[in-house]
Design brief:
heterodimer; A: about 110 residues; alpha+beta; 2 helices; globular; B: about 400 residues; 5-stranded parallel sheet; 26 strands
Chain lengths: ~110, ~400
């Protein structure tokens, strides 16, 4: 279980307990947190679950796969700490994770 | 226009209906919401049924759109195992299969589509299946496995995904297709032959130009598929994937305008202003092509849900969309953007032999659609070119040494 703070673009915070094994995307979608669309349901096919990972957590959220890198390359407002949240698996090590959302997922 | 106390009744608890209910709450709708579905379980994602789920890589929890307690927590009256029998638009009521009647202020038809059955002998044998619902997928998973023979009737995307998953489960797989190539209705020849070769390399066999005339059985269970040329292909199970038809009967019976689905406008509103139609059942406008059609895809279900929920709560409509869809087979990721309407040229970028290439469908110098195999840049940039209606230099597009960003610049 990890407590994850999702911060919408307008600053609204959602603190959610997410089960191990789910993805950061699933933690948001299943709890109706707005701002993460995840149109493809986690297939790494759409780049609509884009988040910015808080600097302190970048080391713990793992490396991007070539597919994720490639999808992100064409998303909007991409930064160094951009990730597709469907590609980050939740574990105890991510307890306290903070992610922020871009202005739009398109 | 919007009434915050309106009772919204949603008929159909698939991806479209379930998403519409959740979005209405997310957008702040305060009135009652009733979600009626004919399946016994809460809304779930169908795409994994022919992919990760069939291979045991996803469980029921991960399939669910929302946790089961979500509906009660958000005051959504979810009614499983319930079908709508008829619609009285004058009285604004719906008659349900449990004998009750629901009054609505706003109705959303999200009744989806059903798999088309083959009207041939033996189609009702045990082991002749569709893959539409979680129950279908359970049934299939319990039937196929190492040493079993699986016949797939229909060489479309569902059929090919089932074939790939069947191989992953260790079954012998044969695909029977009526046309002389795979994906005949939905993809160009380059893609058809690529998929055929790729599946053959994974030991799937094909019978093209093969019309299935009957299923044979013993003790009520399928044992083979008979073809028009007289041959019988032995099998332990058969999956029929030959298309789907919209569940538009109650709309039609109630006098709503219906074409190849329930006709709606850009807000997903039907010819009755109190009724919306979304997802597979909707026949809807697609402005970038200047025409109306019916689509079967998750992005289409989500878009309809956004349009209807936005209109109901009086929020601005979602930004214009570019339709897209995806398919996973083996280690292949296929991403498709747009539809190949009015195409006068097909251009292949990259080499199919490398399993990394994209097929662009052009009308003049406009990209109408792109089919990208293991090629996210071509998909992402292609989608933007389609949505932006931006002309491209075809010679540059055909040259994979020029990046997609430069091509689109």
């Amino acid at each position: 279980m990890a407590k994850i703070t999702y911060i919408e673009h307008d600053g609204t915070e959602h603190v959610i307990d997410v089960k191990n094994g789910l993805t950061v995307m699933e933690g948001a979608v299943k709890n109706n947190v707005p701002g993460i669309d995840a149109d493809c349901g986690g297939a790494c096919a759409c780049a609509t679950c884009h988040v910015y990972v808080d600097e302190a957590w970048r080391g713990k959220t793992g490396e991007k796969s070539a597919m994720e890198e490639s999808m992100l390359d064409f998303a909007e407002n991409v930064e160094d700490n951009s990730r597709l949240s469907c590609q980050i698996k939740v574990s105890d090590a991510l307890d306290g994770l903070v992610v922020r959302m871009p202005e739009s997922q398109h | 226009m919007s009434d915050p106390a309106a009772h919204v009744v949603i008929l159909g608890a698939g991806h479209a209906g379930g998403t519409a209910a959740a979005l209405l709450r997310q957008y702040g709708h305060a009135g009652p919401i009733t979600l009626v579905g004919d399946e016994p379980i809460a809304p779930y994602q169908r795409p994994p049924l022919s992919k990760a789920w069939l291979k045991g890589e996803a469980d029921a929890d991960s399939l669910a759109l929302k946790p089961v307690e979500f509906y009660a927590e958000h005051d959504i009256d979810f009614r499983p195992s319930t079908t709508a029998l008829s619609l009285n638009r004058g009285a604004k009521t719906v008659a349900l299969s449990d004998g009750s009647q629901l009054s609505y202020d706003v109705l959303i038809l999200a009744t989806g589509a059903r798999a088309i059955a083959l009207p041939i002998a033996g189609a009702d044998l045990d082991g002749v299946m569709f893959l539409r619902t979680a129950a279908d997928a359970e049934h299939l998973k319990a039937t196929v496995g190492p040493g079993k023979k699986l016949a797939v009737v229909g060489g479309g995307y569902i059929g090919l995904e089932v074939a790939a998953s069947g191989r992953a489960l260790g079954a012998d797989v044969v695909v029977l297709e009526r046309e002389d190539r795979l994906l005949a209705r939905v993809a160009c020849e380059a893609l058809s032959s690529f998929f055929k070769t790729y599946h053959e390399r994974h030991a799937v066999s094909f019978e093209l130009g093969a019309t299935v005339t009957a299923f044979e059985g013993k003790d009520g269970h399928v044992t083979g598929v008979t073809l028009a040329d007289g041959r019988t292909i032995a099998c332990d199970a058969a999956v029929v994937g030959v298309g789907a038809a919209p569940n538009d009967e109650i709309a039609r019976d109630s006098g709503l305008e219906v074409a190849r689905g329930v006709v709606v406008d850009i807000e997903a509103r039907t010819s009755d202003p109190a009724i919306f139609a979304i997802g597979d059942v909707a026949h809807r406008p697609m402005p970038i092509y200047g025409r109306m059609f019916r689509m079967e895809s998750v992005p289409n279900a989500l878009e309809g849900a956004k349009q209807a929920a936005s209109a109901i709560v009086g929020r601005p409509p979602p930004p214009g969309e570019t339709p897209w869809q995806w398919s996973d087979q083996y280690d292949l990721k296929l991403q498709i953007a747009g539809y190949a309407f009015d195409v006068d040229e097909i251009l292949v970028r990259g080499d199919p032999a490398t399993a990394k290439f994209a097929v662009f469908h052009l009308k003049g110098d406009l990209v109408q659609s792109v089919e990208a195999i293991n090629s996210p840049p071509e998909f992402m940039m292609g989608k933007q070119l389609i949505g932006g209606r931006k002309p491209v230099d075809k010679a540059r597009l055909a040259d994979p040494s020029i990046s997609m960003k430069e091509v689109a610049a």
